[in-house]
Amino acid sequence: MDDENKKIENGNELNENLASNDNDSSQNCAVERKITQTDHLNKQLLNAFLERLNTKTENVQDKEGETTDVEWVENTAGETDEITSSLKNGIKLNNVFIIGISGPSNSGKTSLTSCLKKSLPGSAHICQDDYFHPPGDDRLTWIPEVQHHNWEVFSSLDMDSMVRDVKKIKEIFMEEVQDKPSILLVEGFTIFNYGPLNELFDKRYFLVTSKETCQQRRLTRDYDPPDVPGYFDKVVWPHYKQTYSEITERVDINFIKEGMSKEEIYTQVKNDIDIYLKSL
């Protein structure tokens, strides 16, 4: 009976998460392009990790419920080996897994990533949208036909910084002593097309979405700078078709076809990740 109640609670929590993502889609999925070059990385995330690494004491409760301060000391090499061998399911220290979530504009990447992050305790999230150069940057390409910058090409993004940040978070994860793998979720519309970033992924998922669906959803989102007439048809979608053609034959990417509900997509991806982690 307890197991059945737990299943119901988990199902309700998933529905609440998905409903919350849907209601806040205009905020969660909007591309914030006013990003300075010194603000690429999620500072709050890294600072939290660094704080955890530097903490020397931790409050713990004994069997009587009393709280005490325990001072942690670094283990010797022999002690570390002993801890490693005692971890459950044969999981070793320094296991860090990077999962890529990709798809065209407004395909549901943010909603899926948000739900996965909530269901994977201790996981972290990094988004390609945080690496756009600021408006007016000399590296942006101007398109006279639509009188707008091209935000779909790699030159509009600081991809070198993104790769460095992903590697940095992985290094921080690897320094932590834990009894289960650490997971970094990386979200972006061209993350599988950029070699130095693509080679870092352990699992890859791509949300295939039709032009009609993407365009309809995009009309409900706010962008900064805002889309101009013709930008989607003349820039966004042609660029997506090009980048998609570059990866469509790859066997290392799990392509999720359109037609599934958010719940079905989440369940499929989450189950696949669970199976992968259990196989290690």
Describe this structure in words.
- The chain is built from 10 helices and 9 strands.
- The radius of gyration is 21 Å and the shape is globular.
- With 280 residues, it is of the alpha/beta class.
Index terms:
280 residues, alpha/beta, two-stranded antiparallel ribbon, 10 helices, 15% strand, globular
| Arrangement of strands in the largest sheet | 4-7-3-8-9
Helix content: 40-55%
Low-confidence stretches: 1-44, 52-75, 78-93
> Strand count, sense and closure of the main sheet?
5 strands, parallel
Query: How far apart are the termini?
Result: 32 Å
Q: What's the overall geometry?
A: globular
Beta strand %: 5-15%
Overall mean pLDDT score? 77
Class of secondary structure makeup: alpha/beta
Q: What is the H-and-E element order?
A: HHHEEHEHEEEHEHEHHEH
Helix tally equals 10
Using the CA coordinates, give the radius of gyration: 21 Å
> How many β strands by DSSP?
9
Quickly describe the structure.
With 280 residues, the chain is α/β, with parallel strands linked by helices. The chain has helices at residues 2-23, 25-28, 43-54, 77-86, 109-119, 159-175, 195-198, 211-218, 231-247, 262-278; strands at residues 57-61, 67-71, 96-102, 124-127, 141-143, 148-150, 182-187, 203-207, 254-256. The chain is 44% helix and 15% strand.
